[in-house]
């Protein structure tokens, strides 16, 4: 049996007025999801524990079968693993976003215009992070370049538990209430604006009409991760396919192979088809389990892009699910596929929510009585509710 998780990050949503009260999932043309759900177990699942924030780190750990309350040490350490940072036990890792702030004179009065500096390219970001590191690196602080706007800072023997705010949670808001209370972190962010506002990369971006990456934003701190080995825990060997360092980092820490896919970007421009091809190849080459993560619906939710979110769902359906399931069938492989989001990222709020999310599990050699369509409302009709992502993962992997 082959096991596939199709994780559609942030796909779940609330009814949208512009869609006549429908959600993007309801509006999207997704014949393959709807075909499979007719013979699937479907319902809702709570992926985020009540005592934790609804982040992709928490929710993806749970969907992969790990109890976040037992193994979560922070978001940035997982990304640090993907970047290749060798963290010491006493290091604290921080996510370092490149963001666009308004040009108000006083830093605290600025507005979070864009949490990703308009999806700045990795090549541009590399120059900016080099400038940041050249100016701020010392015996205890060091910066590392990641992908696009997502980077990392290490604070040797630093402070943890600072309750820092993710920048995507405050899009369009003044940052006054959300600036760090810790002076060192705040000063780094404040000084970065002075350093970056006239950086050559930003001068060129503004000339092109693009948002400048005029400040760093530090958040998601944590210590070196401690996630049990996936094969030892669940008895299957597997791989992770994702464009983002967070999911790659979870995979690396869990001992899963990380498959890099050409054209994977983490947004609506990602190469959906290549992700499907890579997953099929991994399964036919001997992997038992593949975790396919697509960030695009989440990014579209954060940006309030209704049509792009619908399009992302449709591309997952047509370019990943259809060729993958067809390829497994043609090669005589029995498989189970779990399709779900990790959390909602509603268009109306542009940030994560902790509501239970829809899921479906299709087993190729075993038919279940399913439902007609796969969306947030239809799955409620089954009456199936799973209390945690960890429990759902164990059920999917036949560990219960």
Overall description:
This protein is of the alpha/beta class and 400 residues long. It has 2 domains: 2-71 and 227-396, Alkaline Phosphatase, subunit A (3-Layer(aba) Sandwich); 83-222, no CATH class. 34% of the residues lie in helices and 19% in strands. It contains 14 helices and 13 strands. The protein has helices spanning 24-27, 31-37, 56-63, 68-71, 75-83, 122-136, 183-196, 200-207, 230-234, 245-253, 272-284, 296-303, 306-330, 389-396, and strands at residues 2-8, 41-45, 91-101, 112-114, 141-147, 150-156, 215-222, 238-241, 257-259, 289-294, 335-340, 357-363, 385-386. The strands form 2 sheets. An 8-stranded mixed sheet has the order 9-8-10-1-11-12-2-13, with helices on both faces. Strands 3, 4, 5, 6 and 7 form a 5-stranded antiparallel sheet that branches. Strand 5 and strand 6 form a beta hairpin. It is globular. It starts with a strand and ends with a helix. The mean pLDDT is 96.
């Amino acid at each position: 049996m082959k096991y596939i998780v199709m994780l559609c990050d942030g796909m779940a949503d609330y009814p949208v007025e512009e869609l006549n009260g429908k959600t993007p999932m309801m509006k999207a043309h997704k014949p393959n999801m709807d075909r499979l759900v007719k013979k699937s177990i479907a319902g809702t699942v709570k992926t985020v524990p009540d005592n934790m924030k609804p982040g992709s780190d928490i929710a993806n750990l749970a969907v992969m079968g790990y109890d976040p309350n037992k193994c979560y040490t922070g978001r940035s350490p997982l990304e640090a693993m993907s970047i290749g940072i060798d963290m010491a036990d006493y290091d604290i890792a921080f996510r370092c976003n490149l963001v666009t702030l308004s040009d108000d004179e006083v830093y605290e009065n600025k507005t979070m215009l864009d949490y990703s500096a308009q999806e700045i390219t990795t090549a541009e970001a590399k120059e900016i992070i080099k400038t940041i590191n050249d100016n701020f690196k010392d015996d205890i602080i060091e910066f590392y370049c990641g992908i696009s706007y997502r980077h990392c800072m290490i604070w040797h023997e630093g402070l943890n538990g600072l309750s820092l705010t993710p920048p995507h949670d405050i899009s369009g808001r003044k940052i006054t209430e959300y600036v760090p209370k810790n002076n060192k972190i705040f000063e780094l962010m404040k000084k970065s604006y002075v350093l970056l506002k006239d950086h050559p990369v930003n001068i060129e971006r503004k000339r092109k009409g693009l948002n400048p990456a005029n400040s760093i934003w530090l958040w998601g701190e944590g210590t070196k991760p401690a996630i049990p080995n996936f094969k030892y825990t669940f008895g299957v060997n597997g791989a992770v396919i994702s464009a983002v360092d967070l999911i790659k980092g979870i995979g690396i820490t869990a001992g899963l192979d990380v498959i890099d896919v050409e054209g994977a970007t983490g947004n609506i421009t990602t190469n959906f088809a290549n992700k499907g091809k890579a997953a099929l190849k991994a399964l036919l080459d001997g992997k038992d389990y593949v975790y396919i993560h697509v960030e695009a619906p989440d990014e579209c939710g954060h940006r309030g892009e209704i049509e792009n979110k619908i399009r992302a769902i449709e591309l997952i359906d047509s370019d990943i699910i259809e060729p993958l399931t067809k390829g497994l069938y043609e090669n005589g492989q029995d498989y189970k596929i779990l399709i779900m989001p990790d959390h909602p990222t509603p268009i109306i709020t542009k940030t994560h929510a902790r509501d239970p999310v829809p899921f479906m599990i299709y087993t190729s050699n075993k038919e279940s009585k399913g439902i007609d369509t796969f969306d947030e409302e239809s799955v409620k009709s089954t009456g199936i509710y799973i209390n945690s992502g960890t429990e759902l993962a164990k059920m999917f992997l036949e560990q219960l």
